[in-house]
Design a protein that fits this description.
With 605 residues, the protein is of the alpha+beta class. Helix content is 18%, strand content 28%.
Length: 605
């Protein structure tokens, strides 16, 4: 194996720095292409791993980043044209057998998808049987995909992802290289930085710490259209492997992409955050050698051995157990646990590192918690203050009752659907306080603090608590909160945070969702707050704590409650809120029949 750097020409003459690692021997081989803004050097070990398994491996700096000249405009059309030119270039090389897999994580996943979903002239990809397009790959592997500018900037329900985008833009925006710690340094100098108003002019304050300007920041918030790649995915006919984490802020985009893809598609949803990092305390069986899985899946996809179906697996937290998934025929993307056992049981490799014989090379044993994924080594966490990627071990208030949730299905019975925990019920979620509360932008509920107020004075959220679970509970699928609420302002955000409390009162984030509603002040409304796709095993004695608040700051920008755009608003006012327990409930995807699958053979069949 040898790695060399070449410069691949694009239609406008810009030559992009590309590392190429070829397998030993002169036999033509398939290629894997990774296009990244985070530096191709971070993928050297990954390239060697692919080459050791018979693939020509390419890692390319996107236009305007690191070794590639040009201007850097995130998520713009040049990613499609540059990527298509590189795929065509790879197919034309003497070492190529004509097959190309586009792969990537986070932004690199966007780069892979845009070339998979469009031909070089911008039209939708041809249906099977039509003439082959040189610039379109034969299969796609995407992990924790950052689908587009708006998809990363805003939640599906509207609120702006302030912390995540400020951190990413400070580290990577409007520069040729990266500075991953830029926002952390800026906050150390200016702790109230993210309180700056208006949000659209945040760079004016941030520039003092960065020493440079961020002229592209306003454009981030100008575009409100999201979901374009998911919609285009329905036209695709090539195979897709979508890898995500239940603690990744982009998990629902991963599920939506899988749900809507038109060709054979597989979903692997593990107990990971955006970095695809396992909990170091998790048992070895909870880890998967992603490098080995990618190789095996790519071979099956290129050989046409994948079943023409849409299925996948979801991990039950760090338990090492995986459930198969299927698509439920509803208007929204959803997955449910499938009780079908694997038809061809095989031993699943769950090694920590890719240096095993069938894995990818380069991962040190000292990186015990790290799982190798396409581009993961260079992907910054999109929301370092997000609830999904941290553990808070504060002690919660002791329960005032110990009634068992009688509405749970008995063990080893098929679930009829999501199980409801009604508000205000002794066997559901008991209201502790805050049926009426104040959402004050000057004193917002914080996203980086799981502590809850002990008393009812000046409540800033509605707080509810369940009785202890009488037995272990498996959750796999989509969770929602349906709440009947009132706000005295024309625009209000509704944030729902669900936390699992172990018998000692230690808190572990379980689910979160936030939506924005506009309407006449004082008008009661029934609101559905999607809480994402869950994959967890909760031990007996666990209690569920639900919080309903008007803010989730600094992860999300503060709603000004005036009806103005939160990005441009300069005036904030409090909002009085009411939550009506009657008609409100938490709906969780309880799996009653525990039939597990081996993830690797399930993904590759």
């Amino acid at each position: 194996m040898n790695t060399r750097t070449v410069y691949v020409p694009t239609p406008d003459g810009t030559a992009l720095a590309t590392d190429v690692c070829l397998p030993d021997g002169a036999r033509p081989c398939p290629a894997v292409l990774i296009r990244t803004p985070y530096g191709r050097d971070a993928h050297r070990a990954e390239l060697r791993g692919w080459a050791a398994n018979g693939f020509a491996a390419l890692a390319q700096d996107v236009r305007g980043r690191h070794g590639s000249p040009g201007e850097w405009h995130p998520y713009q059309g040049h990613e499609r044209t540059d990527g298509a030119a590189t795929v065509a270039w790879a197919r034309a090389q003497a070492w190529s057998n004509g097959e190309v897999v586009a792969a990537g994580a986070s932004y690199a996943a966007h780069c892979a998808l845009v070339i998979a979903l469009a031909t070089p002239d911008g039209a939708c990809r041809d249906a099977p049987g039509n003439a082959h397009r040189d610039g379109v790959p034969d299969a796609v592997i995407v992990a924790v995909p950052a689908l587009g500018l708006t998809d990363t900037a805003r939640e599906p329900g509207g609120p702006e992802r302030l912390w995540a985008r400020a951190g990413w833009w400070a580290a990577h925006g409007d520069r040729h290289d990266s500075d991953p710690d830029a926002l952390a340094r800026a906050l150390a100098d200016d702790p109230r930085l993210l309180e700056h108003l208006p949000v659209v002019r945040l760079p004016e304050r941030l520039t003092k710490s960065l020493g440079r300007e961020l002229p592209s920041w306003p454009r981030l918030w100008a575009d409100r259209g999201r979901g374009s790649l998911v919609a285009l995915g329905s036209t695709a006919r090539l195979p897709l492997l979508a890898v995500g984490g239940t603690r990744d802020p982009f998990a629902e985009d991963t599920v939506a992409l899988w749900h809507g893809w038109g060709g054979p598609t597989r979903l692997l949803l593990g107990p990971w955050g955006h970095r695809l990092t396992a909990d170091p305390s998790a048992p070895a069986r909870a880890r998967i050698n992603l490098g080995a899985l990618y190789v095996r899946w790519a071979r099956a996809a290129l050989a046409g051995r994948l079943e023409p179906t849409r299925h996948g697996v979801i991990a039950l937290g760090d338990s090492g157990r995986w459930h198969s998934t299927r698509v439920r025929s509803t208007p929204r993307a959803a997955i449910t646990a499938d009780a079908t056992p694997p038809q061809r049981p095989e031993r699943c490799e769950r090694s920590e590192g890719p240096e095993r014989s069938e894995g990818l090379e380069g991962l040190k044993r000292s990186d015990a918690g790290r799982l190798l994924a396409m581009s993961a080594g260079a992907v910054p966490d999109p929301s370092p203050g997000d609830h999904r990627d941290h553990r808070d071990r504060r002690t919660a208030p002791a329960p005032a009752h110990t009634h068992a949730p009688a509405h749970l299905p008995p063990p080893d019975t098929e679930p009829a659907g999501p199980v409801a925990w009604p508000f205000g019920s002794p066997t559901g979620l008991r209201l502790l306080h805050g049926a009426e509360f104040s959402a004050d932008p000057d004193h917002p509920v914080r996203s980086d603090d799981l502590a809850v107020p002990a008393g009812e004075d000046r409540a800033d959220r509605c707080l509810l608590l369940s009785p202890p679970l009488p037995r272990p509970l498996d959750l796999a699928g989509a969770a929602v909160a349906r709440i009947n609420v009132t706000a005295d302002t024309p625009c209000a955000d509704w944030a729902v945070r669900l936390t699992a409390l172990d018998p000692a009162g230690r808190a572990d984030p379980l689910a979160f969702g936030i939506v924005r509603r506009t309407g006449p002040p004082g008008e009661a409304a029934d609101i559905t707050v999607p809480l994402g796709t869950l994959g967890r095993r909760l031990p007996a004695g666990t209690r569920l704590r639900a919080e309903i608040a008007g803010h989730h700051f600094p992860a999300h920008a503060r709603n000004p409650h005036t009806g103005e755009d939160p990005v441009t608003a300069t005036r904030l006012v409090p909002s009085r809120r009411t939550v009506n327990p009657r008609g409100s409930a938490l709906h969780l995807p309880v799996v009653a029949r525990r039939r597990y699958v081996e993830p690797v053979p399930e993904i590759c069949r």
